[in-house]
Amino acid sequence: MPLLKRLRSLFRRKELDAALDEELKFHVEQKMLDYIAAGMSPEAARTAAMRSFGGVEKTREECRDMRGTNLLENFWRDLHYGIRTLFKDRRFALMAIFALALGIGASTVVFSVVYDGLLNPFPYKDAAGITVFQIHNSTDTGTRGRGAFAFSEFLDYRDQNHVFSDVVGTAYTNVLYSTAGGMERLRGSYLTTNTFPFLGVQPLLGRWLTDDDGNPGAPPVFVMSHQLWKEKFGGDPKLLGTPLVLNGASRTLVGIMPPRFKYFGSAVYFPLSMARDSPNAVNEYNRPRWLVAEERLKPGVTYQAVAADIDVIARGLAKSYPDQYPKRFTIHVDSLASDVVGDSKAMLYILLAAVGMLLLIACSNVANLLLARATVREKEIALRASLGASRGRLIRQLLVESFALAIAGGALGCIFAYAGIQLTAAIIPSMLPGEAVVELNRVVLLFAVGVTLLTTLLCGLAPALHSVRGDLSSRLAGTAKGANSSFRHGKLRAALVIVEVALSIVLLASAGLMMRTLYALTHLDLGFNPANVLVMSVEFPDGTYTTVEKKKAFFEQSLSRIQALPGVISAAETISLPPYNSARSDITVPGRTHSEEWDTMFDVCSEDYFKTIGLHLLRGRLLSASDVDSGRFVAVVSQTFARLYLAGQDPLGQKFKFNALDQIAQTPHDAYFEVIGVVADIHNDGLQKAPFPQAYVPYTITAYENRALLIRTAVDPLLLVKSVREQVWAVDRNVALTDAETLTHYLQEFTYSQPEFGLESLGAFAGIGLLLAAIGVFSVMAYTVSLETHEIGIRMALGAQRADILKMVLRKGLALVTGGILIGLATSLAVTRMLSSEIWGVKSTDPLTFSAVVIIVVAVGAAACFLPARRATRVDPLIALRHE
Amino acid sequence: MGKDQLQGALDLLILKMLARGPLHGYGLAQRIQQVSDEALRVEEGSLYPALHRMEQLDWIGAEWKATENGRRAKYYKLTPAGRKQLAREEKAWSRVTGAVAKVLRYA
C-alpha cells in the first residue's frame, strides 16, 4: 500500500470518517427509497433497509482497517486503555514489572560482558578479522598450542602463507628505566614495524612506528602507552620528542597512544625490523627472539583454509626446527578475542545460558500473572467480543497490555543493568582482554530493547490466545468462577509454575556446584603455606650479572640484608611462583629406560627456600648453605618424582640429568645431579591438576635467566615492599624489583577469582530465580484458594477441621513444587554436565548439592503455599456459601 | 475455492462493473445483482471494505458527485492501475474456471 497515502489517511482521520459515514448513510437511504418505491411504508422501509445492511458498525470498522492506519490508531488507544487497566490493578502491575525488570536487567548485564568482552573487545581496525594460529600438540588435551615463533620461523610463515593479508609479531621485553626513586621495570614490546598500520589506531599525540624506524642506523625511537604517560609523566605533552634512557640506551619518544590502546598490556613499544639479518632477531641472551603472531585474513578465507595452508608450511618448518614441533600436531585457528578470553569462554557461555533461564522464569511469572488476570477479566473480554471486537483485535489489545508491562519492565531493567554492569565490571576477574570496556553502550541497549520485545511475546501471547479461546459470548451468561475455561487456565498456570520451579532448581544446582568447587579449591592442601609470603621479580640490566659469581654475590648480600629487616622471617631466591612453576625439563636417569618422556618441574633456589614457603622434608636432607655456595650438582626431589622416576631403589644417592640444560649455552651440560633429599609434594601445576614431579637445585649452578625473591614475613607482607627495595638498591641501584605482591594475591587472581565470579553470578541468578518461582507458587495457590472458597466452605460446614483444610491446600501446592523439583532434577543432571569445565573437586551429580537444593526449594515452596493455605483455614462457611 | 479466491472474485466483479463507467457503492451492488439475473447478491459488509481496500491500492479512484436526484454520493471509477489489474484478474479467473470446467467434464 502506498505509504504516502497511508500517512495522509492518518492525518485526515476525522474527514475520512465523516465521508465514510455519509457513504454508508447514502447506501441505506437508497435502499430505503427502493423499498418505498416497491410499496412499503417509510417506517417499514427504514427497518428493512437497516436490517439488510447488517452490522453497520462492523462494516465501518473494517473499512477503517483498510486504510492501513487503524493499526497505529488502535495501538495508541489500546496502550492508553491498557495502562489505565494496569493502573487500576497496581499490585499486579508492579509485581510483573519487577519480575520483568530483573529478567531483562540480568540478561542485559551478561550480554554486555559477552559483547564487550568477547564479541567486540578491541579498539583495533576490523578486529573481528584478526586471527591467531597455534601449533597444537596432538597428544595434549584441549586445543591450545604454540602461537609464538622464533624470529626467522615467524618470517617463514609470513612469507610462505597464501591466506593472510598481513602477519604481525610481538616480542615481550623487560624495560628497565631509571627514576629518582631507583630502577623500575616497564613492560615493553618489540612490534614488527607493520603492526601499527595493522591495528589502525591513531596515536593521541605524535606518530606511530613505521618501517623506517626499523631500518639499520635509524635513530632509536619508541611509543608510549596512555597509562604510563599519565601515571609516570603526569600527561605532559612536552614529553613528546624528548629522549629517555631505557635499558641503558637513549630512545626518543615519538608517539603517545590513546587510553584504550593496550596492545599486549605494554607500557612502551619499540620497532622491530622484519629484515632477516636484523640485530633484533636475537634477545639479550643471544637467543632467537620469540614473536607472538597475529594475522589478518584475506577476504573470504575460512579458518579451515587457514589451517590447511599453515599445516603445509608447518610440516616443512618442522624439518628445519625439529625441536620446536611435536611429532604429531594440528593447526588450531581462532579469532583474537576468542583466543585471549580462552578458557573463560565456557564461563561466559554458561552465564549466558543461566541468564536465559532466569529470563524464562521471569516471563513464566508474568505470563502466570496475566493468566490470573485474564480469568478475572473473562466477562470484560466477552463483553468486548459481543460488542463487535474481533478475536485478532482482542489478542492485539492484550498483547499491547503486556507490551506496556514489558516497556516499563525494560526501562527499570536498564536501570538495574546500569547498576549491575558497574558492579560486574568491578568484580569481573581478569579473564577479559585488557582493552575491553564493559559498559551499557548502544549495542547493549539495543539488546535490552530486543529482549523487551521478545518478553512481550513470550509472556503475553499464551495468555492472550488463551483468553479468547472457545465461545466467548457464552461466558457472559455464566459466572466467571468455575467456568470451563478457568479450569484450563488453571492447568496452564500450574504448568508454568512447574517450569519456574524446575528452572530455579537448575540454577540453584549450578550455583551449588560452583560453591562446592570454590570450597574444594580454597580448602585444598597446597603442600606449602601461602600466607604472609611476599613475591618480587628481580630484573637485571642487560649485560650485567652474567656470571654465577656476580649473581651469587648479589643474592648473598641482598638476602642477608632482607633477612635482617624487622618483620622478615626468612627470604629466598627462586625462579618460580608456586603453585605455577615455569621451568620444565625431561630427565635422564642412568640405568633406567622408558619409552615416554620423563618430565619434571625444577626450581633453582637458595637454601632457605624450603623454610620460606613451608615445605616438609620427608627423607634425607635439604639444600645446605654450602651446597648453594659451591653450586654443587645436588637435588632435592618431590615425593611424586621419587615414586615415578626413582622407584624400587633408595632415591637418596641416585643421579639424574636435566636434558633441557644441555640445550642452553649458559647452563651446565651433561650435569648429573645427586638426590640428597625427598620433600612433600606441592601443587606446582595449578591447583586443579595433580602435583607434577618436582626437583630443587642450587641457584648457583647457572647465571641464566631472571630470578625472583620469596620473603616470609611476620607482618602484612606489602608493608615491607619499600624496605626490601631499599635493601636491594643498597646493593645495586640498577636492579629493578617488580610485580611485588603477596602469594595469596596471586592465588586469588589466577585460581579463585573465576570460580568466585561464577559463584557470585550464578548465585545471584539462582536467588532471583527462586524468588520469582516462590512468587509464582504463591500467586497460583492464592488464586486456587479463592476459586475454591465455596468448596472449602462446604467442607468446613460438613465438619472438616482447620488442619484438614491446611493439609489439603498445602498438598496441592506441594504437588506443584514436587513436579517442578522432579523435572528440575532431571534437567539439572543433564545440564550440569556442561559445567564440567568450571567445576572441580566435585562431581556434576554431587548428591550433597542436589539434596541441599531440593531442601531449599521444598522449604521455600512450602512457605509460599503457607500464606494462601492459612487464608483458606480462615474461611467462614456461612459467608462462603452465601457467596454464590 | 478458498477465501482469497472468493475475495478475488468480488474484486473482479467490481473492477469489471467499473470498467463501464463510474458508479457509487449502492449502484454497484444493484448492477451486479441485475447483470447476474439476481443470482449474485453482494453483501454490504464485504462490498465497502473491498472498495476502500482497492481505493488504497490505487486500483480505483473516488469522487463525490451529485446523483440524478441531486443527492451527494461517492462515485468510484477505474484507474489505469485498476485496468491492468482487471486484465490480470480476468486471465486468472478464466484459467481457474476453465480448469474447473475441465474437471467437471471429465471427472
Q: In words, what does this structure look like?
A:
The complex is a heterodimer of chains A (884) and B (107). Chain A has 884 residues and is an alpha+beta fold. Chain A has 28 helices and 22 strands. Helices cover 53% and strands 16% of the residues of chain A. In chain A, strand 7 and strand 8 form a beta hairpin. The longest helix of chain A has 45 residues. The two termini of chain A are 54 Å apart. Chain B has a 3-stranded antiparallel sheet. The two termini of chain B are 18 Å apart. Classes of the chains: A alpha+beta (884), B alpha+beta (107). Chains A and B meet through helix 1, helix 2 and helix 4 of A and helix 2, helix 3 and strand 3 of B.
Average pLDDT of chain A: 87
**Percentage beta strand of chain B:** 5-15%
- Helical stretch count of chain B? 4
Broad shape of chain B: globular
Summarize the structure.
Chain A has 884 residues and is an alpha+beta fold. Chain A is built from 28 helices and 22 strands.
Quick tags:
heterodimer; A: 884 residues; alpha+beta; eleven-stranded mixed β-sheet; six-stranded mixed β-barrel; 28 helices; 53% helix; elongated; B: 107 residues; 4 helices; 64% helix
Write the layout of secondary structure elements.
The complex is a heterodimer of chains A (884) and B (107).
Chain A lengths: L2 H9 L1 H25 L4 H12 L2 H11 L3 H19 L1 H30 L10 E8 L10 E3 H10 L3 E16 L2 E11 L2 H5 L5 E2 L4 H4 L6 E4 L1 H8 L9 E4 L2 E8 L11 E5 L17 E8 L5 H18 L8 E7 H6 L2 H33 L1 H9 L4 H37 L14 H26 L6 H4 L6 H39 L10 E7 L8 H16 L4 E7 L9 E5 L10 E7 L3 H5 L3 E4 L4 H6 L3 E5 H7 L9 E4 L13 E8 L14 E5 L8 E7 L7 H11 L4 E7 H45 L1 H9 L4 H30 L15 H27 L3 H6 L2
Parallel strand pairs in A: 4-9, 6-8, 15-20, 17-19
Antiparallel strand pairs in A: 1-10, 1-11, 2-10, 3-4, 3-10, 5-8, 6-9, 7-8, 12-21, 12-22, 13-21, 14-15, 14-18, 16-19, 17-20, 18-19
Chain B lengths: L2 H17 L3 E2 H11 L8 H13 L3 E7 L5 E7 L1 H27 L1
Helix pairs in contact in B: 1-3, 1-4
